[in-house]
Amino acid sequence: MYDDNVTLLGVKKEIDESKQGEVLYFDQNVSTGRKFYIESYGCAMNFSDSEIVASILAGEGFGPTREMDQADLILVNTCSIREKAEDTVRNRLKIFNSLKTKKPDMMIGVLGCMAERLKSKLMEEEKLVDIVVGPDAYRDLPNLLAKADEGERGINVLLSREETYADISPLRLDSNGIVGFISIMRGCDNMCSFCVVPFTRGRERSRDAYSIVAEATDLYERGFRDITLLGQNVDSYKWSNPEGTEHVNFAQLLERVALVHPDLRVRFSTSHPKDITDEVLHTIAKYENICKYIHLPVQSGNSRILELMNRTYDREWYMERVDSIYRIIPDCTISSDMITGFCTETEEEHQDTLSMIRYAQYSMSYMFFYSERPGTLAAKKLKDDIPEVIKKRRLQEIVDLQVETSLQVNLKDIGKTFKVLIEGDSKRSNLEFKGRNSQNKMINFPKRDGLKAGEYTWVKVISATSGSLRGEIVDQP
Ligand code: SAH
Ligand code: SF4
Ligand code: F3S
């Protein structure tokens, strides 16, 4: 039932990269002329970057298309997090390349983490790729495209300590006009031993707090009602003004964004268990519009494995953070990421991950089996010694327990009434709406006249599965 990557109850923008990437298109009119087609893989930050790229391309007179064979430029924004993610992109490149042999004027560009990881090697391997651009070099796209027009292949994979694209207003792609994402920082300084991100995204840097609040305000004014602040480790957000007279941490940023408007829901991802502070938890509790939902990846429930992973917390620390969340924000839900079969993991240690699911009562989790990534600390120092069949069996065990736990957690919602932001028609029927509550649970419910997407309503839950809730509209309690 699973591939390399299992997503449960996934309402997050993070995409299962084993599937085809998402094709992005516009919610805004941009000039027609030359056309570009973009597919994105990997995490929400990559999708958010594609919106920056789209904005830069629009400035160059490129318009969007959903049909790759109509494109003058095909871009693929790539992910390197697991081997499978890279395999998927290589398969897509084969398809793009066969298109290019029929239409030689078409340009192909590889963006994102694979571009950064493989650098010029990618050009050697992929003979038909015209440009290779890393995550910090998108401003160079016009220059690289101009050269590619002249037949010169180009690459820019320089990482930056400053680039945050703060001044570029992203073109919202594939958006329903209600739910939006704002990058608040880039890079990661954590060096978890399994992870390629510090190598592909470079050093951590935080974006100007004023530009974040301005973007949130702009989104609110354009009708958006649910925004997610994005970073690999949002809790270490730290920005100072150039004069050094003003310092903003994550709790303070959350508060500033929450104050944009009480009807603007604020979410964030991802929190790191070592950095999430009580100040952040109290801020969440204080504002009704800061969603009561924390994605707090544990990775493993065992302290020895956590140390090998260089996560810099242990099982007890993590449990204490979970206790604090439920104490300070009693109606909060927590979700997680977990990796099975990390180097030297024993059956007993695997049991600790299972027991953590029970302890933390996750509403959902993203679960993976370990995939060694070249250049990471684990690849250099540890042996990837758990056979794949065992990794997969352990993964199946955590998936099964998570499904059961999600169901138990959701069943507790029956009879409760939630404020739900209507996001559109439910998957099943256009007689039903779908929307999420503050706890990030998807609820389907019959429509009522006079209500439309982008508005809030109150819904009483009448039934639940492990993946979603069903309910009916009720008057405000
Ligand atoms: N910054 C986030 C994680 C970003 S990557 C955090 O620290 O939580 C998303 C998830 O991919 C990780 O949480 C981890 O569970 C998984 N992952 C990362 N590297 C992996 C690898 N080498 N093999 C398998 N899963 C991996
Ligand atoms: Fe990777 Fe760890 Fe950084 Fe997350 S915190 S991006 S897992 S290095
Ligand atoms: Fe993948 Fe890069 Fe995100 S490796 S998960 S796209 S930061």
Protein model, in words:
The chain has 477 residues and is α/β, with parallel strands linked by helices. The chain has three domains: 149 residues, Rossmann fold, CATH 3.40.50.12160; 233 residues, pyruvate-formate lyase- activating enzyme, CATH 3.80.30; 58 residues, Nucleic acid-binding proteins (OB fold (Dihydrolipoamide Acetyltransferase, E2P)), CATH 2.40.50.140. Helices cover 33% and strands 23% of the residues. It contains 14 helices and 23 strands. Strands 2, 3, 4, 5, 6, 7 and 8 form a seven-stranded mixed beta sheet that branches. It has a five-stranded mixed β-barrel with strand order 19-20-21-23-22. It is globular and about 65 Å long. The structure holds S-adenosyl-L-homocysteine, iron/sulfur cluster and FE3-S4 cluster.
